[in-house]
From TrEMBL:
Sequence similarity: Belongs to the SusD family.
Name used for this protein in its record: RagB/SusD family nutrient uptake outer membrane protein
The keyword Signal belongs to this UniProt entry's keyword annotation: yes
UniProt-listed Pfam families: SusD_RagB (PF07980)
Length: 133
């Protein structure tokens, strides 16, 4: 995990599921990543801004699949369907087969390994809802 990822996680934590934020600490973390890359600072950020910045900042680190698993599944399928899968000359070699009707929401989940389930069968039970007082 790199420091830039920690900064983006912090900005998302401050956003806390809200529509947008102008919180100084969130902007400080978010803009530190952008400024290092030579991009201008923002005065307000949304989840989409953070999501895009994670995609750009962590493009070669294999995290994007897990980020897609955190958003609405139909949106994730739309993103995958819109990817350019052509070769270096722009020739598309095959037709993408991802669509919302072809894939279920659970396509983004990975089953628990059998050895983990053997050690703890409760992993297959429904999660217990937590309440905060």
């Amino acid at each position: 995990m790199r420091y830039a990822e920690l900064l983006l996680i912090h900005a998302e934590a401050v956003l806390a599921g809200g529509a947008s934020t102008s919180d100084a600490t969130a902007l400080s973390s978010f803009n530190a990543v952008r400024n290092r890359a030579g991009l201008p600072s923002k005065t307000s950020i949304t989840f989409d801004d953070i999501f895009k910045e994670r995609r750009l900042e962590l493009c070669f680190e294999g995290d994007y699949w897990f980020d897609l698993g955190r958003i609405d599944k139909s949106d994730a399928i739309d993103i995958i369907s819109a990817q350019n899968r052509g070769d270096k000359y722009g020739v598309q070699n095959y037709t993408p087969t991802y669509s919302a009707t072809d894939h279920a929401a659970n396509d983004f989940y990975i089953d628990y390994p059998d050895n983990d389930v053997a050690k703890n069968p409760k992993l297959l039970e429904d999660p217990v809802p937590y309440t905060f007082n």
